[in-house]
Amino acid sequence: MNLVPHRGCGSAASCCLLLCHYLRALNISELPESSVKGRGLRRGEETAAAAAEPDRTGPEPDLLIFHLLPPDAPADARRSSASERSLLAGTTGTMMTLLRKFFVAVAVVSCILCIYVLFLNLEWTSPAVPPIRNQQDVTQRTHSSSEEPKELPSRQNNHLKLLVSTPPTKLLPVQNVKQANKSTGVQAAKPAGPTDPPYIGDSYMTETVSLHTLCPDGIRARVQNSEFRERFLEQIPVLQSLKHASLEQYERLRRYPGTHGWGGVDYNTLVETLSVLNTSANREMLDDWQSRSNTSRCRRCAVVGNGGILNGSKKGKEIDGHHYIFRTNGAVTKGFEEDVGSRTTHYTFSTNTLMNSMRSYSRYGYSRPPVSKETRYVFLPDHDRDYLLAKAAATHTLVERGPEKNQDPKKYFGEDVSAEKLKIYHPDFVRYLRNRFLRANILKGRYRNIYRPSTGAVMLLAALHTCDQVSAYGFMTPDYTLYSDHYFDTKYHPVAFFANHDFRLEMKLWQQLHAAGLIKLYMRQH
C-alpha cells in the first residue's frame, strides 16, 4: 500500500511545530516568596542570588521588582515593597498560569486538527486487479471448490473434467495403488438428462463394454425403438474392477453414501479388495458364456424374485431352461423346485441382506446362499463390510474386521469359492438405476439418503444391461394383494413396504418394460 499525504498537511505540521516552540519560549514560572524561602536564601542575599543566576531567557518578574530597590532603603520601605511585591507576584503568577493553560489548549486542539486533516486526506493505491473477462470465469471459480460434483445438462455424452483433491498420503501405501492409477481408458461422462441437485449425481463412468453376443434381436437393439432410449446407457460399467479405483474416481464417488458411492469405504480397503478381484471373470457378468456348449446366439436370462405369485405357478422347469438364472436374498429352492426351479447362476445380495435373510428365513430352510459350480456371487455393496467379506472370500482368509470379524466366508459360499466367482456392482451403475429408472419422491425430502432400489430391482435391471433376453418371475404385479409376500410363506402375509424402497414405483417400471418388449414379466391369468 502506497501512502500519499495531502498537500496541506505540510503547512499544518509547520504550524504545529511553531506553536510548540512558542510555548517553550513562554515556559517561565513565577518564583513566589515561598519558593525563595525554599531555596534557603535570606532577603539580603536575593540580589546576589539573582546576579549569580546563570544565563536565562529572561528575569523572573518577582526578582526583577525586588532588584529595583536600593540596598540602603529603609526597613519600612522594604516591608512595604515586599508586600507589594508579594501581591504583584501572586497576580502575575496567576495570569501566567492561565495564559500557559490557554496556549496549551490551543496547541492541543491545533495538533488534533492537523492529525485529523493528515489522515483524512491520505490516499492509498491498491494492487492492480486484472479484470474478469466474462461471467463464465466467475462461475468456474465459484464451482471449482465446491464439495459437490458439478452437474452440466447435456443432450449427449460429454467428457467431464472432475475437479478433485488428492486424498491424504496415508491412503497411498497400498501395493496396487500404482496399478489402479494408471491410465485405463475409462472416462467420466455426463449422459443426457435434466439438471439435478448435486446429491443426485447424474454423472457416470463410461467404458467400452464387449458383450460377446451375436443376438440379432437383443435388448440393446430393441431399446433404441422404445421410450427408454434416452434413459439407457450402453457404456456404463455394471461391475467394479481395479481400473475404476483411481484417486480421482475415489474422490468423486466417496461423496455418495451407501450403494450409490464409496462413502464410508476407505481407499485402502477398496483397492485391496479390487486387487484380488481383477480378472476378466470379475469384470463380466456372464463370464463363462463363450465356454458354454450351446448353439444359441442370444443369452437368455431368468430373473427370479421371491414374490408369492410364484407359489403354485409350476414355472420351475421353464426357469431352469434359461442360460442364466438370477436370484436374491432368501432364495429358498429346496421343496419349491416345481415352482421356482433349482439352478442359480447369479446370486445378488449385500452382506447386510444376506445376514438378515439367514436369520429371518431359516425356518423355511434357508441356511446360506445357493452353492454350485456355476453360481456366481454378486455383491451389492452398501458398506465396507461387503468389501471385507469379498476380499476374505477371494483370498480364503477370515474377515479381518467389522461385524463379520473372524468369520470364514466358506460357510456362506462353500468350500470351492474362488475369486473368479465374485463380482461387485459398480456404485455408478446403482446410482444410474435410481436416477434414470427409479427416481422416487423420497429423493426430494430429508430422508433421501436412505432410499435405494431394492436388491431385486438392481438384479433385474443388471440383467437388462447384460443379457439379450430377460424373463422376470416373482416380481410385484398390480394384483399383488392376491398373493402372500413370499412364495415360501406357509400362511398368507401381506406385502411389506419399507421406507428405503418404493415397491409401487418398481411395479410400475416392470409393467412399462414388459409393455416395451424389453422384459417378459410373469403375470397370473385370471
TrEMBL record:
Pfam families: Glyco_transf_29 (PF00777). Residues 1-25 form the signal peptide. Residues 144-153 have a biased composition (Basic and acidic residues). GO terms for molecular function: alpha-N-acetylgalactosaminide alpha-2,6-sialyltransferase activity. The chain crosses the membrane at residues 102-122. Keywords: Disulfide bond, Glycoprotein, Glycosyltransferase, Golgi apparatus, Membrane, Signal, Signal-anchor, Transferase, Transmembrane, Transmembrane helix. Pathway: Protein modification; protein glycosylation. Its main location: Golgi. It is found in: Golgi apparatus membrane. Residues 134-143 have a biased composition (Polar residues). Residues 37-59, 134-158 are annotated as: Disordered. Its EC number is 2.4.3.3. InterPro entries: Glyco_trans_29, GT29-like_sf. One of its GO terms (cellular component) is Golgi membrane. It is an enzyme of class 2 (transferase). It catalyses: a beta-D-galactosyl-(1->3)-N-acetyl-alpha-D-galactosaminyl derivative + CMP-N-acetyl-beta-neuraminate = a beta-D-galactosyl-(1->3)-[N-acetyl-alpha-neuraminyl-(2->6)]-N-acetyl-alpha-D-galactosaminyl derivative + CMP + H(+); a 3-O-[N-acetyl-alpha-neuraminyl-(2->3)-beta-D-galactosyl-(1->3)-N-acetyl-alpha-D-galactosaminyl]-L-threonyl-[protein] + CMP-N-acetyl-beta-neuraminate = a 3-O-{alpha-Neu5Ac-(2->3)-beta-D-Gal-(1->3)-[alpha-Neu5Ac-(2->6)]-alpha-D-GalNAc}-L-threonyl-[protein] + CMP + H(+); a 3-O-[N-acetyl-alpha-D-galactosaminyl]-L-threonyl-[protein] + CMP-N-acetyl-beta-neuraminate = a 3-O-[N-acetyl-alpha-neuraminosyl-(2->6)-N-acetyl-alpha-D-galactosaminyl]-L-threonyl-[protein] + CMP + H(+). The keyword NAD does not apply. It is a single-pass type II membrane protein. Belongs to the glycosyltransferase 29 family. PANTHER family: ALPHA-N-ACETYLGALACTOSAMINIDE ALPHA-2,6-SIALYLTRANSFERASE 2-LIKE-RELATED (PTHR45941), ST6 N-ACETYLGALACTOSAMINIDE ALPHA-2,6-SIALYLTRANSFERASE 2 (PTHR45941:SF4). This is alpha-N-acetylgalactosaminide alpha-2,6-sialyltransferase.
